[in-house]
Amino acid sequence: MFENRFTLSDRTRSLVEAARELAPRLRRRAPEAERLRMVQAETIAEMRASGLFSVMQPVAYRGQGGDFADYIVIAEELGAGCPSTAWIYANVVLKSWMVGMYPRQAQDDIWGRDPDTIVSSILRPTGKSKPVEGGDRLSGRWSYVSGVDHTQWTIIGSMRELAAGGFEPVVHLVPRTDYRIEDNWHVAGLAATGSKDIVLQDVIVPAHRTITMKQAQSGAAPGAAVHPDNPVFRVPLMSSFGFFICAPIMGIAKGAIECFTETIRSRSTMGAAAGGGGVGLSSLPTIQLRLAEAQMRFEASRATMLDAAVATMHAASRTGAVPEAQRIANRRAQSYSSRIAVEAVDFLFEAMGAGGLFLSQDIQRYWRDAHAGAAHFGVNWDAIRIMCGQHAVGQEPALKYY
Predict the structure, then answer these.
(1) CA distance 23 to 95
(2) What's the pLDDT score for residue 284?
(3) What is the pLDDT of residue 373?
(4) CA atoms of 267 and 287, how far apart (whole Å)
């Protein structure tokens, strides 16, 4: 268990318990959330009331001031209950961390009046922006904005025109009143995340609500000076972005293991290869070895993720920076941990046979959602392992995703 190897604050322990207590309700709500294509408002309200969204929110804005490991152990519990809920949770907590990188005035805009405000994002710079007096003019369309129905602001990436020619990637903080949501999220996995498109046309974003990706990657974003006592705001964005993708996938594996264990206790064989019906599935060696294999993959995923998270904060606390080698190691850990967590789910789903295909069975949702999560480019193992391999042999990685 994580608690046996690392020290959790009392507050984080209470948040883990709140998530663990909520998980069974999330699991019961999951089929309806999937039908609605968004998690229920009552789920968001319960998470907000429990303080779950505040885990990485700065202390100055009534947050917990936690770090990546604190987030991971909470997301794991939520993912075991409802993968889509955990995915939205990841998106919101990631943005709490990111908002903490902005200038103080932007953080006041978000949390000054209401510390319970939550933010979604789409960092992919598919839109264009242009400097104007007092800020930037922003237009475009952005896809896959998870949880956008429940958030009050969104962090949006764009390519900003430079006066000298060319473009630079930036990220803007935009209120809900400035964009239109287009409901086009009809998908096979993570359906309840409501990851719809948003559209903006000629929106003026004040200068204090925009930072460059270079700043977010520098370890010296404006917010690092606003919160000098918390080194998490000195961690480069892309080095730790993958923690927020992998943790829900890891939670899915945990939920699939729990679901599978419950199911095999009550099911028996129908005959055929088993040599006769009525044999309890839990007594079959093939079932036992698959369960053990899945458990080991989940535990390896968890340990790898937490080790990287703790090492990252140790580096940021000790030196004020995260070295390139650790940033590369993070990307490797996040991507590979996602891969083996999905493998854990696959081992169990395959063992369920045709019975696992029914929509009334939770295991098929865990399987679909695990593969949907792993489809995110942020944990694409092919791309990340090439980048890590190039670094390992002393070459400059072609992909600057760390």
Answers:
(1) 22
(2) 87
(3) 97
(4) 12
Using CA atoms, how far apart are residues 209 and 174, in angstroms rounded to an integer?
Answer: 8
Q: Which residue has the tokens 């064989």?
A: 269
330 inside domain: yes
Q: Report pLDDT for 1.
A: 45
Residue 237 confidence (pLDDT): 97
Q: Which residue type sits at 233? A: F
**Is-contact 192 85, C-beta < 8 A?**
yes
For residues 37 and 245, give the distance between their C-alpha atoms in angstroms, rounded to a whole number. 19
Distances (CA, A) of 352 to 263, 276, 388: 9, 18, 36
Residue 294 structural domain: 238-392
Whether residue 294 is found in the same domain as residue 345: yes
Same domain? For 258 and 177 the reply is no
Please, which residues have CB within 8 angstroms of residue 362's CB and are 6 or more apart in sequence? Answer: 27, 30, 255, 259
Distance CA(242)–CA(223), nearest Å, equals 21
Backbone angles phi, psi at 5, to 5 degrees: -115, -25
pLDDT the model gives residue 64:
96
Q: What is the pLDDT of residue 267?
A: 78
pLDDT for 8 equals 84
In this prediction, the residues of the chain whose per-residue pLDDT falls under 70 are 1-6, 269-277
CATH number at residue 354: 1.20.140.10
Radius of gyration of the chain (CA): 22
The two structure tokens encoding residue 329: 């190691």
d(CA 86, CA 200): 27
Domain-terminating residue out of 63, 92, 113: 113
CATH number at residue 198: 2.40.110.10
Instruction: Determine if the pTM surpasses 0.70.
Output: yes
- Give the per-residue pLDDT at 5: 55
